[in-house]
Specification:
Its cofactor is Mg(2+). Helix content is about 40%, strand content about 15%. With about 500 residues, the protein is of the alpha/beta class.
């Protein structure tokens, strides 16, 4: 079909497509630049695809992002990370693929030069087309322009046939279009339903997890495909005042013994916390928290049984996060999502470690105040507030592919609101997707274990007696889309998770 008619049909309708070639030419004159490149006086929004299949692929991505920032590209959004089978030339290692949105004052020609310079500096050499490379950087979109020269075509000519490009491109969007530039990208897809329809025509979300394409999260020295099986995060509180097991594991010996038991029972992650976040808990300084945490962390890290397992540090202090990761922790689990320490996001970004951002209002001493329990729609409000904090983290340099989201069951919620969240996990994802598809795809963690609302419902005032109802709440969470469950009793919840995973797998097949 004539491209002029196609563009006008999408933007103006069937009648305009048939009768207004003049309008079409005016529209395309704004988009198409006949090979001319210009120096921009204003920033332009761009989309750049990344690929790597040589060397340390995750490090290559991190290195490329830093080099792009230094070259005049401000990165504003990241797609998810995909491990994919190679295309075109199939006898080569698997690729990592993603994409970023950013803004730059570089004109298209200069932007291309900078990206090619980054590729060369990172070791890419001339070789087989579509062959192995440490980094591959392609301009997918540049503002609302079309460019067609001997060296550069925008939009990239093969976007629409490549699932490994389309998936991260979709991630960079919200289901609600956020500006006119994004509208122009949808227009350039040549589909009435925009980029979303183009993705669906390829197979859409059904492609993920099959045909050699997986959504992954880099953690430790591996890529974690979290959607295959639900992960168990076992809780270890090295505190005298936690609501459930405070004082039980203060000594290194007791802590190691408990970790060994959790690992034998099937824990995938051990979550170490040295500061209580129960309601009205007193707050420790970072130094006090580290005094409790580090001896246990070092002992646990040295356990032979930890081979292949992960350690998470439960803290809202950036100083604690920095020290814990330097001593071997694999994840940072922040109940405040950066609200209680303004340095947290920048520190985690520099550490290049996964980040659990949890929803909470206020701090542990104020989170259950009346004003912090007021919601118009708890799921919509939690989704919006959690998205806002994750966006702050992303702008600070934590890519979406390192994010884990937690709606914060028991934090700034009453019993009814906790129930609404447990039943509304898909709604929370859907609300976040309106703003960012990438963040809506992030692994979802829930932690209802032994929480007070379970005791209120079942008449169990003693936290340790709430394990059966915890199993029920974990079951609801997993069936609602949770990818990680944080629990005290690993053994019983592991069985519940196995059943849920088997049910979900049965549903998929």
């Amino acid at each position: 079909m004539n491209i002029i008619k196609q563009v006008v049909r999408i933007k103006y309708g069937e009648r305009a497509a048939k009768t207004s070639c003049k309008a079409a030419r005016l529209l395309l004159s704004r988009l198409f630049h006949d090979g001319r490149v210009e120096v921009n006086s204003e920033e332009q929004e761009v989309v750049i695809a990344l690929g790597s299949n040589v060397g340390d692929r995750v490090h290559n991505f991190d290195d490329a992002l830093e080099r792009m920032k230094k070259s005049g590209i401000e990165i504003t959004r990241h797609g998810c990370l995909y491990e994919t089978e190679p295309a075109y030339v199939t006898d080569q290692p698997r690729f990592l693929n993603s994409a970023i949105r950013g803004v730059t004052k570089l004109d298209p020609r200069k932007l291309l030069e900078k990206l090619k310079e980054i590729e060369r500096d990172m070791g890419r050499t001339a070789g087989i087309r579509y062959g192995p490379r440490p980094i591959d950087l392609d301009i997918l979109f540049y503002g609302s322009r079309m460019v067609n020269t001997d060296t550069l075509t925008i939009p990239h000519e093969r976007i629409w046939e490549r699932p490994f490009v389309m998936a991260p491109l979709i991630d960079l969007l919200g289901l609600h279009t956020d500006n006119d530039t994004v509208k122009s990208w949808h227009l350039l897809s040549r589909n009435s339903g925009g980029i979303v329809e183009a993705w669906q025509k390829l197979g859409g979300e059904s492609l993920i997890g099959k045909d050699g394409m997986e959504r992954v999260l880099p953690v430790g020295d591996r890529l974690w495909s979290w959607s295959k099986n639900t992960s168990i995060m076992g809780i270890l509180n090295v505190t005298p005042d936690s609501f459930s097991d405070g004082g039980k594991f203060l000594s290194v010996e007791a802590a190691v013994s408990q970790v060994r038991s959790m690992l034998m029972e099937g824990a995938d992650i051990v979550d170490l916390g040295a500061q209580s976040t129960r309601p009205m808990a007193s707050q420790l300084s970072p130094e006090q928290e580290l005094d409790r945490l580090i001896p246990v962390l070092e002992a646990v890290k040295g356990m032979p049984e930890m081979e292949g397992k992960l350690i998470s540090v439960d803290t809202f202090h950036s100083q604690v996060a920095l020290e814990a990761v330097s001593r071997g922790a694999d994840l940072v689990n922040d109940v405040s999502a950066g609200q209680l320490d303004s340095e947290m996001h920048s520190v985690v970004a520099a550490l290049r470690t996964p980040y659990v951002a949890m929803h909470m209002r206020g701090d542990p001493s104020t989170m259950q105040n009346h004003e912090n329990l007021e919601y118009d729609d708890v799921n919509a409000d939690v989704a919006f507030e959690l998205y806002t904090r994750v966006r702050d983290a992303e702008v600070s340099g934590i890519p979406a592919w390192r994010m884990i989201i937690d709606p914060g069951i028991g934090f700034s919620k009453n019993t009814e609101q906790n129930l609404d969240i447990l039943m509304g996990l898909p709604d929370i994802r859907s609300e976040i997707a309106k703003k960012s598809v990438a963040i809506s795809h992030a692994p979802l963690l829930v932690g209802p274990s032994r929480k007070r609302f379970l005791g209120e419902i079942c008449g169990r005032p003693v936290a340790a007696e709430r394990d059966p109802v915890t199993v029920a709440s974990v079951t609801a969470g997993v069936l609602g889309g949770a990818n990680i469950v944080r629990v005290h009793n690993v053994r019983d919840n592991r069985d519940a998770v196995k059943l849920c995973d088997a049910m979900l797998q049965r549903r998929r097949t």
